[in-house]
Amino acid sequence: MPLRSAPPLADKDPFDIDEAFRRLRQAVAGRPKAAMFALRDRGYGSPFEQLVGSLISARTRDETTIVVCERLFAVARTPQQMVALTPEELTRLLDGATFPEPKARDIRALSRRILTEHAGEVPDTPDALMAFHGVGPKIAALTLAVGFGIPAVAVDVHVHRIVNRWGFVAAPTPERTMVALMELLPRHYWVEINERLVPFGKWICTGDRPRCSTCAMLSMCRQVGVTTHR
């Protein structure tokens, strides 16, 4: 079972999650948003668009994901429109994303299943979403959180790294981190944590040499595993 890992330290303030989110909002203000939140703000916030966009985003940079999704959604924004595309057309529209051919197959397949098994509506439970090929816990959580507005914790590499680095949780994998956060994190932060920590992880709390010396979280962060920093 994942456990909270931050014992009191003489040179650190107690970890206050409300204060942490206040600082995070200020720290990432003006930074580019995580892809799915950026797409939502550009008008692509339906459950289907968020499901497809999250699948496209897997192992693809946010900047590329946004370009590819806007190109695709200019042509097809519903399951009906998606299955009307030929495999070749869909693959071409996904050019630039990683693994465009497998993702095209998965998008066509889930679009068809949404039409035939779910009366054209994206299901709104994790299990039903993860029954689609190519959809794992993170994609399901993003679809629920951003597409439906249902509290769900989407854990990517940034969220996993940062909350463990803080010492807020101690979990060896993103899946275990998700479970730990669902136990420890107030529900009203479940959606927001991904929105804030993705840009925070890209620009400040980076994987290598994080910018600790100027980080607003430094007084509370346990800096677990940090050996060098800026």
UniProtKB/TrEMBL annotation:
Q: Does the keyword Ubl conjugation apply?
A: no
Q: Which residues are in the HhH-GPD domain?
A: 56-203
Q: What class of enzyme is it?
A: lyase
Q: Which keywords annotate this record?
A: DNA damage, DNA repair, Endonuclease, Glycosidase, Hydrolase, Iron, Iron-sulfur, Lyase, Metal-binding, Nuclease, Plasmid
- InterPro entries attached here? DNA_glycosylase (IPR011257), Endouclease-III_FeS-bd_BS (IPR004035), HhH-GPD_domain (IPR003265), HhH_base_excis_C (IPR023170)
Question: Some GO term, biological process aspect, for this entry: which one?
Answer: base-excision repair, AP site formation
Give the family, as the similarity comment puts it: Belongs to the Nth/MutY family.
Protein's name according to its UniProt entry = Endonuclease III
Q: Which organism is it from?
A: Azospirillum argentinense
